[in-house]
Amino acid sequence: MVRRTAPSTKGHSFLHVIKLVSPFVMVVVLQATIAGLSLEVMSSVRAYVAGEALWSRSQKNAVYFLNLYLHSGEASQFVQYQSSLAIPIGDEYARWALERDPVDVETARVGFLQGGNHPDDVPGLIWLFRYFNQVSFLREAIREWAATDPMLLELSVFGEVIRNELKSGPIQDRGRLQFLSSRLSELNRQFTWHAERFSTVLGEGSRAIKVILTCINIVTAMTLILLLVWHTRRLVLQRQAFEDALHAEKERLAFQASHDQLTGLANRRAFEARLQSELESIAAGSLGLVLLDLDQFKNVNDTCGHLAGDRLLCRVAELLRQDRQPHDLVARLGGDEFGLILPQRSPVDTVDIAERLRRSLELFSFPWDDRCFAVTASIGIACIAERDTTLEEAMRRADAACYRAKEKGRNRVQVESTRPDGVLVASRHREAARA
What pLDDT score was predicted for residue 7? Predict the structure, then answer.
């Protein structure tokens, strides 16, 4: 025999927790990703701005030292010129490597390092160029950067030309000297203009990115707040629905515990509890207790089956409910036995009510299939005025009255009363029974 184990609630609870927190985790992860991306973009833009400052300073130094070398012929000044020129050339090589297809990342890394960029900034420089080079501000900045390529080439060529001319001694031709010096000044002016444009575009782009990323972070934060509010509200509604369902289930169970499932009337347990309460609170007048037994009910069950019997009991229950006061209680005590509690009713009123019920049942006929059954009842009444009457005594008195009604031929009301006017009530009953 294979033993089956109940499914573990631990795994179910874990999955339920995951389901509850997953939306929050997703938004937090999204916001963390956006925040990380924001920092990376801003850091890379900052690296480009820093690189541009170094690039601009280096090209100015290159022009400056080449101009000094032009007039003095000092070899050390040419070396300084070459050292300064190597920085913008390194950045140029890096850009060319990133514009290739496929991208040459290693050459770009070497080029940026030659350009004097910090090693920690190089990955960000490469990443921003590769994946954001078509963004408007970066595309325009790259265009200004690329516009200096011919100038760098000319500056490099000028350096070699001047070096070759100085090998034979200082340049004596003042016109030639003035031309070379003027051209270097013009190159420096063009370099400066493009460098300023590059810096301006990057600055505008950096500010735009800051605004965009700030808006995105605000939107994700608001989304998280709204999600939290929505999720909390959903949990509150779920809890409320659960509590309502639990309350409804408790009411249903309480109703089932105190009511007969077939007829919907109170059951014996509820009937006896109510009777006990009424017996303990008798203050004025009397309490009418009525027990009703259907006559020959067994014939309906035996002849037509229990379905017909059940339908008859339901019809009788509907009849007993009619014209009842809000504080009256009608109950099915079991089988074909019913009971009524009539608080603050005089014996005369109780008998009148019982007699009307008897006549209503007598006039009522129950059709089933091709047959029609007459319905009568034996009714016993106990009119109770004494506060010290026990539940058992009250039920015994009403039950005895009902039994005597059956003995006397059924379809009648029998009163059992300990009140001083009990004889009057009994004689009135007999007159009603003979009518």
Answer: 52
204's tokens: 């505008």
DSSP one-letter code for 373: E
Spatial separation of the C-alpha atoms in residues 179 and 124, rounded to whole Å: 42
Provide the strand spans (E) within 303-376: 329-334, 337-342, 365-368, 371-374
Q: Are 317 and 330 in contact (CB under 8 A)?
A: yes
SS3 124: helix
The pair phi, psi for residue 44, each rounded to 5°, is: -70, -40
Would the CA dihedral through 31, 34, 40, 41 be positive or negative? negative
Q: Which residues of 260-287 are buried (b: 16+ CB within 10 A; e: fewer)?
A: beebebbbbebbbebbeebbeebeeebb
Cα–Cα dist 203/129, whole Å: 16
Tally of CA atoms within 13 A in the half-sphere of 294 that contains its CB: 31
Instruction: Give the pLDDT confidence score for residue 3 in this predicted structure.
Output: 52
Q: Which residues contact 111 (CB under 8 A, 6 or more apart)?
A: 90, 91, 92, 93, 94, 95, 96, 97
The 3-state DSSP class for residue 172 equals coil
Nearest to 127 by CA among 208, 32, 50, 43: 43
CA–CA distance, 342 with 325 (Å, rounded to integer): 9
Pairing of β 413-417 and β 377-384: parallel
Distances (CA, A) of 335 to 63, 204, 271, 316, 325: 118, 92, 15, 12, 25
pTM listed for this prediction: 0.51
What distance lies between CA 206 and its chain's CA centroid?
A: 38
pLDDT at 397: 95
pLDDT digits (tens, 9 = 90+) for 26-64: 767 776 777 677 777 778 888 888 888 888 899 899 999
Residue 383 phi, psi (nearest 5): -100, 110
Question: What is the structure's pLDDT at 221?
Answer: 79
pLDDT of residue 430: 43
What pLDDT is recorded for position 289? 94
d(CA 111, CA 64): 23
H or E segment at 381? strand 377-384
Share of the chain above pLDDT 90, in %: 36
The set of residues, in sequence order, having a beta carbon less than 8 Å from that of 162 and lying 6+ positions away, is 66, 69, 70, 180
